[in-house]
Design brief:
α4 packs across α5 and α5 crosses α6. A hairpin with a 2-residue loop joins β1 and β2. This protein is an alpha/beta fold and 264 residues long.
């Protein structure tokens, strides 16, 4: 059985992490499949929005800790080498999500723990069920965070709150995550799939190339100097203005109708 199920419908690619018996813990096979699928979707012009979710009752309960139990029997040198390679294996996923020129939505129910939090934070938007819960949890197994959470978390919630979340490893619910700026939307559990579809459909009907440029601008702003950011704004705006969706958007505004964006 594949550890990642992929489906396409009306411009939306839905990726379902499929290890419900282990709360979708991130196996080596799942890592490889995620990296490969994201790479393909990045270049697939028919996909205009990506949804990432977990099979069953949970989003993802982190790395495969049971699988790690065998590794810790090795020498310190062997453990160091193995886990250095393991963590680097995650990086193609994070890079692909950052580069993705279309929106990525994390749809969370149940547990998002450890790497589950890291991967959700790497998405552009997060929608969660009211009964979802989050815990960074790395400190509880005696290690520091990975999966880009040390980059995304402080930028989402501020350095002091990030320290609290990372150092204490406490569990908090979706409403608390929303209040601290970590997630975007909280909905009743029974409505999560419907509301996720509604959000994805809205984004998949939008100006996809514009979304890609907007993502690139917002993410580069985290590291850019003021002058270089303004230059990038000018270049990206001009790029959008020369495309079909800008002409459609301006025409629709003047004609007082809804725009029909092609994504180009």
């Amino acid at each position: 059985m594949s550890h990642l199920d992929v489906s396409h419908d009306n411009g939306i690619a839905t990726l379902v992490m499929n290890r419900p018996e282990s709360r979708n813990a991130l196996s080596m096979e799942m890592r490889a499949q995620l990296a490969s699928v994201l790479h393909d979707i990045e270049r697939d012009s028919s996909v205009r929005c990506v949804v990432l979710k977990g099979a069953g009752e949970h989003f993802m309960a982190g790395g495969d800790v049971k699988g790690m139990a065998e590794s810790i029997k090795k020498s310190s040198e062997e453990i160091h080498k193995e886990f250095l390679l393991r963590i680097h294996d995650l990086h193609p996923i994070m890079f692909a999500m950052r580069r993705m020129p279309k929106p990525i939505i994390a749809s969370c129910r149940g547990a998002a723990a450890g790497a589950g939090v890291s991967i959700a934070l790497a998405c552009d938007l997060i929608i969660a069920a009211e009964d979802a819960f989050f815990t960074l949890a790395y400190c509880r197994i005696g290690t520091s965070p990975d999966g880009s959470s040390s980059f995304h978390l402080p930028r989402a919630v501020g350095i002091k709150k990030a320290m609290e979340i990372a150092l204490l490893g406490d569990r908090f619910d979706a409403r608390a995550a929303q209040a601290m700026g970590m997630i975007n939307f909280v909905v009743p559990e029974a409505e999560l799939d419907q509301e996720t579809d509604k959000l994805a459909t809205r984004l998949a009907s939008g100006p996809t190339h514009v979304y890609g440029n907007t993502k690139a601008l917002l993410y580069r702003s985290l590291e850019s100097e003021f002058e270089s950011q303004l230059q990038a704004e000018a270049e990206y705006f001009a790029d959008c203005a020369a495309r079909r969706d800008f002409k459609e958007g301006v025409s629709a505004f003047v004609e007082k109708r809804e725009a029909n964006f092609s994504g180009e």
